[in-house]
Design goal:
266 residues, alpha+beta, Jelly Rolls, 5-stranded antiparallel sheet, 3 helices
Length: 266
């Protein structure tokens, strides 16, 4: 095997002794710094902050979760998904569904959903005859003799004729007896009104003909004070259920509903 003469390899450029010394001088003060993290300025522990951040992330995930699809509550002409409040399990009486319109046609009691709902958005259209009175009652737990003993009510009314129309607390769109509705939103008897009821946790909104007429927080200090000063002061279970049935009130007057649909919210 032939041998080749050794070739000297060039040295790689490196740091000079002076450069190394300068770098060491610059890094020396950092060597004495503690690696222990400083406490937050507001005094909270790191664990507390991490928990708060995790909670906010959880709320964001819940808020961004998709809602369930809309469900037509009047899809079945036999009203198999409903019952009269006082007669669970029996066929519905006093209410008739024809051509998509639900009519209170006789004595029977509040038309109540078989299912219970927690967080939801309910949309419908309603119409009353002259002097008519009805309502949409929600989160009913069936422990009371009447649906409104436990469930708050979005009032349905002919404000112009019925006596309750003189008081904003009991006028159309109001949270009956607790939160007043503004004037000039409801349409007169014989005309269709659109209503929307939004219930999520303790937050509730009443919408009438595209206008948000009432907004409140169940169980808040303000709500509790209003309840104590109302006819529900001695109704221990009023507004307490976190989930419950929904009812269309039979107040003995002619009332019609159509396009009743609901979607459950996260």
């Amino acid at each position: 095997m032939s041998r080749f003469p050794a070739v000297a390899r060039p040295c790689r450029p490196g740091l000079s002794i002076r450069a190394v010394a300068v770098t060491a001088m610059l890094l020396a003060p950092l060597a004495g710094c503690s690696s222990k993290p400083r406490p937050p300025a507001d005094g909270r522990s790191a664990d507390a902050i991490r928990g708060a951040v995790a909670g906010m992330r959880g709320q964001g995930a819940a808020a961004s979760a998709p809602s369930a699809p809309w469900v037509n509550l009047l899809a079945d002409s036999t009203l198999s998904g409903w019952h009269n409040y006082s007669t669970q399990g029996a066929p519905v009486v006093g209410w008739t569904l024809s051509n998509g319109e639900l009519v209170r046609s006789g004595r029977g009691g509040d038309l109540t959903t078989n299912r219970t709902y927690t967080n939801f958005e309910l949309e419908l259209e309603w119409q009353v005859g002259p002097g008519g009175n009805s309502g949409v009652i929600y989160r009913i737990d069936h422990s009371g003799e009447r649906s409104y003993i436990t469930g708050p009510e979005m009032q349905i009314l002919d404000d112009a004729v019925h006596a309750d129309g003189k008081n904003p607390l009991t006028s159309a769109g109001a949270n009956y007896a607790l939160h007043a509705a503004p004037r000039g939103v409801v349409k007169p008897a014989g005309q269709w009104n659109s209503a929307r009821l939004l219930v999520r946790g303790n937050h509730v909104e009443h919408w009438l003909n595209g206008v948000k007429v009432v907004e409140y927080e169940l169980g808040s200090a303000d709500w509790e004070e209003r309840r104590r000063n109302s006819k529900f002061a001695n109704a221990a279970q009023y507004g307490r259920a976190s989930s419950g049935h929904i009812a269309l009130q039979d107040h003995g007057d002619r009332v019609l509903f159509r396009n009743v649909r609901i979607r459950e919210l996260p």
